[in-house]
Each structure stands twice: as structure tokens, then as C-alpha cells.
Amino acid sequence: MLSRVAERVYWMGRYLERAESTARLVNAYTTQVMDLPVGVEPGWKHLVDITGTNALFEQSYSRYDERSTIEFLVADPDHAGSIMSSLAMARENVRTTRDVLPTEAWEHANELYLYARANVEKAVGRKHRFFFLKNVIFRCQQIAGLLAGTMSQGPAYEFVCIGRNLERADMTTRIVDSAVFILMPRKAEPGEYDSILWVNVLKSLSAYQMYRQNVRNRVVAEEVVRFLLKDPQFPRAVCHTLAASAASLATFRRNAAALQSLARVQARVADADVRTMSLDGLHRLIDEVQSDLGDVHDQIRATWFTLDQPAQLQVQAQSA
């Protein structure tokens, strides 16, 4: 398989996962704001903090209010991480790799993009936001399921899986860090609404039901963090996504450098005692994990994506 094809299917997996995860995040955060008592307002800036794109946001928007924040994360064509931009890039990558993907993948990716383009403005207001976001999540899952059920499990499919799992690991750490960031100012003094915050974190990752089944405990910060970082069976836990990425990488030749980078972040997550870790320590751990994930991406790109591609393809090589 050509390296440019490998890179395109890898980024297709990342962009679809990024669109779905951002939709989950915005949906859950909006629900949290609506559930809190009158007068308790967590602020919309946290949503931008999670993605680490504050500098880009402040170039175009003057205030972190609800409309500006949602427009930036959902509809802004100049924000590469917005849902609309992610879907556009995913569609383009599917279009240019149609010979290695099932025909239906292009049809569904194109329909998803056209649906989002026609309805994205409605999502900025609350009235239609939930319906739009749930549709985006459902259609992204539909494409992932289609690929799993109809695509040969060869190199192209493994690159799709690697892209999806690295993006998923990155978003899970960002969502956990968003809660840590909110709690850090008051440290060891639990607030009245902390449990609502952690329930919201679980729901944003569709993890609430699995947490209750596996942990069998009330929702407490230490257990939520441990579950989302270290549970080996939950598909959106960092531990699980890293193991799945390693399994995909193991099917390729010349994989030593990428596997070594991946093993480093796996060891960091496995060795961390998150139950006794301070909020500051947890924040540093998440920063280190995100940096490690960037190193894994760099190794994958250097090993498989730079052999025969023209320079313009680097446009989509955003930081992992």
C-alpha cells in the first residue's frame, strides 16, 4: 500500500473520531449546564480549554459565551478541530481512497457531510443542538461499524483503527483533564456539584453504564479517573485504546520505533497510582500522556507516511 494512501485512511479514522468525540463533549457539557441549579454557571471557556485551542479562539471571538464557544467547536470552518472541519476532511480522505474502502463508506461519509453542512447553523442554538449532535454521533458510529463489518482486515483497515484509537485516547485524556482543571482551584475540598461533574464526564464518553456495572460504586473522582485511564476492557479507556493500537501496529513491518513509543505511554498509564495522586499530579500525568501520544504519531508518520507523499499532504498532519 502506498504511504499516501496509508496516511489518508489513518487521518480518516482520526477525523471521524474527532467529529464524534467533539459532538459527545458538546452534548454532555450542554446537558451539565442545563442540569445545574440557577446561579451555578461553570462557564463555557472550559470547553475550549479541553481542546487546547484558546489562542485560535481568541483570534476570532471576543467572549467565551455559549454561542461563540459552540460556533467555534461545531461550525467554524477556520478551526481545523471543529465538527464541520473534521467531517469535511474525513469526507475528502474517503473520496481519495475509495479504491481501498467499501463503496458504502463514501456514500455514508458524503451523506454525513451534506447533512452537517445543511443543519450546522441550527446546532448553535440550544433548540436543535441535541438532535444535530446525536445525528453526527450516530452517523460516525454507522461508518465505523460499516468498516468493521465489510472491510478486509488488512493494512488499510489497521491504519484506520490506529488513527481512531490514538484520537480516542487523546480525547479521553482531554475530557478527564477538563474536570481536573475545574477542581484544581479548590483542591481537597469537594464541592456540592462535583458528582454531577464526574457523571457528566462519564456520560460524555458513553461510559456511565459501564462504570456502574464494572466499578459497582457511587460516582467518585478517583474511581472515574482510574476507570477512564486504566480499564482494559472499556473501548474508550486510554489503556484499551493503546492496547488496540499496539495490536494494529504489530501487524506491520518496521514497527519497532512506533511500538517503543507506544510502550512508553502504556507503561506511564499502567504505573500511575491515580487513586492517591493529587490533582496537580494528575494534571501533569495527563500532560505527559498527551505528549507521549504526539510522539507515537510522529513515529508512525516518519515510518510509514513520508516515503512517497507530496508536500501538500502535510497540510492535514495536525499535531496528534
Please tally the β strands and state the result: 0
Rg calc: 19 Å
With helices defined by DSSP (H or I, 4 residues minimum), what is the helix count? 14
Mean pLDDT: 88
* H/E topology pattern: HHHHHHHHHHHHHH
Q: What is the general shape?
A: globular
Low-confidence stretches: 311-320
Strand-pairing-aware structural class: mainly alpha
The N- to C-terminal Cα distance equals: 23 Å
**Fraction of residues in β-strands:** under 5%
Helix content: over 70%
Reported for the largest beta sheet, the result is:
none
Explained architecture:
The chain contains 14 helices and no strands. It is mostly helical and 320 residues long.
Task: State the main characteristics.
320 residues; mainly alpha; disordered C terminus
Short summary:
With 320 residues, this protein is an all-alpha fold.
Detail the topology: elements first, then pairings.
Layout: H1 3-35, H2 45-51, H3 54-60, H4 66-75, H5 83-95, H6 103-124, H7 126-150, H8 155-183, H9 194-204, H10 208-215, H11 221-230, H12 238-249, H13 256-271, H14 279-305
Helix pairs in contact: 1-5, 1-7, 1-8, 1-9, 2-8, 4-6, 5-6, 6-7, 8-9, 8-12, 8-14, 12-13, 13-14
